[in-house]
């Protein structure tokens, strides 16, 4: 899914092992400071289990690397004052960009995982030349980066979320809802259009990146195994097992939108018939409910069609409730198949599904109960994502942040 970053761990010995250990300790210290927000050296030693001397040396390296700053001493009632360590407010930050079927979006996220700025542009990208779509995304990103809250911050790298099957080389192999981008390394094109940024770029499928955002940026109470299904024009899933995204051999796992659920269903953009997307996808749902479908509806823009759907459901509109019941049932059937295969305890409803979860949940639970073989003694939990519609772009920015958090040593001036 990603490229440009991440070297596999190697077995080392002697000096190489000592260097590896130092790198891991640096990552541990930086991660602890990022989570704490403000952390004295003594506190850092306590939380990491490292000696005070080691922590002090690591802190000096992180400061010299421009990742951490030392604040004014906190004067306690007893003992010597400690100077708290905190993240450098000038960055680095990660830039996330999402190109989706009916919008482009961008966000800037800092090492603590906080969104410092974000922007969305509603634009139906179907039938538009790939270069023009990438230019739309690059223009939005450049405009965001020049806006007051984030202008001047150091950008560590670019992460791009794409609505289709992204292979391990970064090429969008299949995007049934955005054919013009197929065969294009869209992230690389966007990076070329932003030459002022570092050349570090990573990309991935939007549902996968939304699942990573769930893992990185929510309090998921130690749940490291789940499937997160994202409802937009396309329907995708990200599978997290053991705290890692499970991508499959070719980086293409999680295509739940094209799981067969309806023998009488219409032909799908993928070429098959009866796909989940044709019952539970955003446009199928809006059409069945008689609601308007404009661009960026999954983000609450585009005349607010998702809000319209919610309003219709609340008012008890028969067609809407029927459409939601049908979508919930189809989602439950598809999710039960996934749970039976990969055995995860939680399914998370994201994107559009988070907004309409109250009308989907009972049908989903009913189907899981009937179809998941382990349900009688290990019932599958159905959770609703708290991340809203911006999960994928936040996950994309997260790729850039994780690269810094995992390898702070690469930021030291001597390394450069
Ligand atoms: Zn299909």
Number of domains: 3
Structural class: alpha/beta
CATH architecture of the largest domain: 2-Layer Sandwich
Q: For this structure, what is the CATH class of the largest domain?
A: Alpha Beta
Write the H/E string, N to C.
HEHHEEEEEHEEEHEHEEEHHHHEHHEH
- CATH homologous superfamily placement of the largest domain: ATPase, nucleotide binding domain
Short description:
With 416 residues, the chain is an alpha/beta fold. The protein is built from 13 helices and 15 strands.
Could you explain how this protein is built, in words?
The chain is built from 13 helices and 15 strands. The protein has helices at residues 15-36, 41-48, 52-64, 130-145, 186-192, 206-217, 277-280, 282-289, 305-314, 318-342, 352-355, 357-371, 391-406, and strands at 38-40, 68-70, 84-87, 93-99, 103-110, 115-122, 155-162, 165-166, 172-174, 201-205, 226-231, 235-241, 244-245, 346-351, 381-384. A hairpin with a 3-residue loop joins strand 11 (226-231) and strand 12 (235-241). It is α/β, with parallel strands linked by helices and 416 residues long. It starts with 14 loop residues before the first helix and ends in a 10-residue tail after the last helix. The model is unreliable at 1-9 (pLDDT under 50). The longest helix is centred in the last third of the chain and has 25 residues, at 318-342. The structure holds zinc ion (ZN). The site of zinc ion has 6 residues, from loops.
Notable traits:
Nucleotidyltransferase, domain 5, Arc Repressor Mutant, subunit A, alpha/beta, binds zinc ion, disordered N terminus, five-stranded mixed β-sheet, 416 residues, 3 domains, 13 helices
